[in-house]
Specification:
Blueprint (H helix, E strand, L loop, with lengths): L5 E3 L11 H13 L6 H4 L1 H5 L3 H12 L5 E4 L1 H14 L12 E4 L10 H5 L4 H8 L4 E4 L4 H6 L1
Parallel strand pairs: 1-2
Antiparallel strand pairs: 3-4
Length: 149
């Protein structure tokens, strides 16, 4: 299985706003398939604690082989998922297999590249890019060597 592409955009760009209905529609699908806790039951703050929606969405896209996903900023990925769910209402989705590990490396340092800053790519996005970007590993006996390799 190939790695899905990852798109980075910076917070300096205008972000879409997501109404509560759109948020709930995505959260409902993710929670129904065991990718995240249900914010309708546990509350939105609990569902969003510790980057869980980003991880849930990335694992969902990976398990269902859905292709490119925007993971930063999260609001764009959430909107992307909302539109995708709306366009495929009867599709059967794969439940969380429980063996997907979401890795989000971030390089140290500060400042960033001035040229990239002028293009609207802020320091956080630059740290993510320098570290190579998020990826998913499947749990296996060789997980540590796969991660370090």
């Amino acid at each position: 299985r190939g790695q899905p592409s990852i798109t980075y955009l910076d917070h300096a760009l205008p972000l879409p706003t997501m109404d509560e209905d759109a948020f709930q529609s995505v959260a409902k699908v993710l929670s129904a398939h065991n990718y995240m806790i249900d914010p309708a039951i546990e509350g939105r703050d609990a569902a969003f604690r510790g980057g869980k929606p980003e991880e849930a969405l990335a694992r969902f896209y990976y398990a269902n082989d859905l292709g490119p996903l925007t993971v930063y900023p999260l609001s764009l990925g959430w909107e992307q998922a909302s539109n995708m769910f709306a366009s495929q209402p009867g599709r059967r989705w794969i439940c969380n297999p429980g063996n997907l590990i979401y890795v989000r490396p971030e390089s140290g340092g500060s400042g960033g590249n001035r040229t990239l800053k002028k293009m609207g790519i802020g320091e956080k996005a630059q740290r993510l890019l320098r570290a190579g970007g998020q990826f998913i590993l499947e749990a296996s006996p060789t997980l540590v060597s796969d991660f370090l390799g």
